[in-house]
Amino acid sequence: MVKRLVMGLALAGWLISPCAMAATTEELEAQLNAQAKQIEQLQQQVGELKQGPAEQKPATTVRAPTEPTAESLAETESHFTRPYTDLVVKGPSAVGRYFQKLTGATVGGYATEQFENFESTNRTFNNQRFIVFVGRELTDRIRFYSELEFEQLASIEADPADSRGGAIEVEQAWFDYGINNALNLRFGDVLVPFGQFNLHHDDPLQELVDRPIVDRRIIPTTWTETGAGAYGEWDTWGDGKLRYEAYVVNGLNDKMSATSGGLRGAQGSFGSDNNNDKALVGRVSFTPGPWGDVGLAGYTGKYDKAHRINGAALDWVAKHGPFELLGEAALFNLQRGFTSSGAVVPQHLWGTYVEGRYHFWPTWLSSTFLGQSFKHPRLTSTLRYDHGVIDQFSNVANAGTFTSDRVTFGLNYRPIEDFVLKMDYEINNGNLERGRSNGFIAAAALSF
Prior knowledge:
Blueprint: H1 2-15, H2 25-51, H3 70-73, H4 84-89, E1 106-118, E2 124-137, E3 142-151, E4 167-180, E5 183-191, H5 196-199, E6 224-235, E7 241-249, E8 279-289, E9 292-302, E10 308-320, E11 323-334, E12 348-360, E13 378-391, E14 401-416, E15 419-430, E16 439-447
Helix pairs in contact: 1-2
């Protein structure tokens, strides 16, 4: 059938062409021969289409990576300049691709393995975290997301003496009802939007191994609370965005420490509140473009039935080419009361960190195993300064100040965005984090 159609079209084309008006027999014969060759070629093409595309043989050579430039090293927008809701929903970040628009549930996660050698501790491996993400988008406007953390790959035994340590807990479990860009509702166990680090704490996203002191003792990262709230954004001039996140939550409780522990144990229960007061927390950020972001957060609520805790946080990031400069500062003030152990609560908790990063890739590494087959591998050198303080009320017996300073030098290798090998050296001074012990710490982190 196809053959007849081709021949018919060719003959019709010839009949209506100027060639049909040729005056001599020789010209007619030459034209018929040319038309026969065209028909033969068309028949061959039709036969190839019927057989399908030719089988593709796998490549046998290893593709060298694209030579990196300042633009390629900086082409991915910093995760600190994107809202957390973008990271877990839209991608293409390490976290975001596990919760894209799909018809069914999506599963992902990340894992971190550490090794440390400090002056005051044993040299040890530490399977620090194993996180599982589960999410589902029921419609464009209704979605669910959750994270389950196995810290130090916790084991639960019938006999506690047989336990291998660690902990299992829910880091997030929330669902959204979308309305528009400016207003979306969220319910469940949410990351508290107090500073940028708590919202972007995942190990594969970070360039250093240890978390900042301010996000360990002052802000109890990972800080999750049960409640409800809203988030949204507005376009401003150019590529600018104004974003917010705000929630009503159970809030911090009185299980805090007036000494080196800070607020790490004071996170509220997922099942009930220890008082009838509800805490308010929110963050507003302005992103003028992919090269910067600044955020301001506030918190207020009662930690027991009578006494209040108030806090504020400022965070920032600036990015230019392969350079990044980011940081955070946080402060909490407490009314005088008592911890769950009967001690007087701390009066002030405050801290800060400043971190500089430089992303680079020597071209001669592209031909080594570090660069082969990877599109944009990179090295990152990082320098961070940490400071944290816990002040007690002055009229408390044995009152004092607990403080720590830390300087961290880091170098990491990231062949792809979702896998990183980190090597850091820390210089510690104080009594909040690692005492006065200096040492080396390394980690491998992978998102999947």
